[in-house]
Amino acid sequence: MAKTIHFICGLPRSGATLLCNILAQNPRFHVTSPPGVLELLFLVRHHWNRSVEFKATPNEPGKLRVLKGVLESYFAAGGITQPVLFDKSRAWLGMIEMAEALLEREVKLLVPVRDVRDLLGSFEHLWRNNPHMRQVTQSTARDGSWETVEGRCDLWVRGEQPIGLCYNRIRDALLRGYRNRLHFVEYELLCRQPAQTISRIYAFLDEPEFDHDFQNVQHATWDVDEMYQVPGLPRIRSKVEPAEPRWPFLLGQLAAKYAPNNHLWQQFRTDRPRVESAALVAAPNAG
């Protein structure tokens, strides 16, 4: 297709929204809020594979062309004129094979990451600000796990929950041998050294550099609360600067339990051979 599509997908509460709004300052770039186009691709593929008519007359090349048409048509609409698009959806980490089949090239994914302890501290902070007026989905469990800080943290890192699900996707993409497709953007470095961090992103994308304004980042895209099942997600600050971690006083000594899950991506070399298939791994060790 005429436009170049890249993907932004990583851990929640790791600066993806901040990164998107920084990149959106470049007039060459169009950055989506979570667009939902991958869900459309899932629905088309699922219906095609289950349809009696398509089973009677298999047409895999036709299916691929239809899926390509969905992706191209989605981003052709809406008056998008920029030549470079960023699709922000964490599910692409698990669908790199599909993305490369549709785009017919090796894809590039920006993967925001953050100290897992601070992720948990961020979720805990959001929860503490909301229980008086809203019910968090996970709190409906009847096993009593939601009643303690440790119980809530253990729940958030489960494989079907926001942190555990995204962590597993990253680890599985690495195990499948896609390290060279992934560019990890550490939240702490983005806030402390924004110019250098963004410069490395441009080098990874093979894009000409742009003079970003890190003192005045405006909202061009944002997340949806329901994606995390945690209400009250704050807006980004306009100035990019470091923030004190919350985990020391929110988690206390409990934080040591989750520290081993940090920096997973540093364990994989870019020359690691790609594995054709790999089973999903367990959620981050919570015990």
Question: Overview of this structure, please?
Answer:
This protein is an alpha/beta fold and 287 residues long. It has one domain: 3-Layer(aba) Sandwich (Rossmann fold), CATH 3.40.50. 38% of the residues lie in helices and 8% in strands. Strands 2-3-1-4-5 form a five-stranded parallel beta sheet. Helix 2 packs antiparallel against helix 4. The protein starts with a strand and ends in a 37-residue tail after the last helix.
List the helices and strands and how they pair.
Elements: E1 4-8, H1 16-23, E2 29-31, H2 37-50, H3 52-56, H4 60-76, E3 84-88, H5 96-103, E4 109-113, H6 116-128, H7 149-156, H8 162-175, E5 182-186, H9 187-192, H10 194-205, H11 247-250
Parallel strand pairs: 1-3, 1-4, 2-3, 4-5
Helix pairs in contact: 2-4
Widest β-sheet, arrangement of strands? 2-3-1-4-5
**CATH 2nd-level architecture:** 3-Layer(aba) Sandwich
Which band does the percent of strand residues land in?
5-15%
CATH class: Alpha Beta
Tell me the Rg in angstroms.
20 Å
What proportion of the residues is helical, as a percent range?
A: 25-40%
In N-to-C order, the SSE pattern is EHEHHHEHEHHHEHHH
- Looking at the structure, the CATH topology is Rossmann fold
Main sheet makeup: 5 strands, parallel
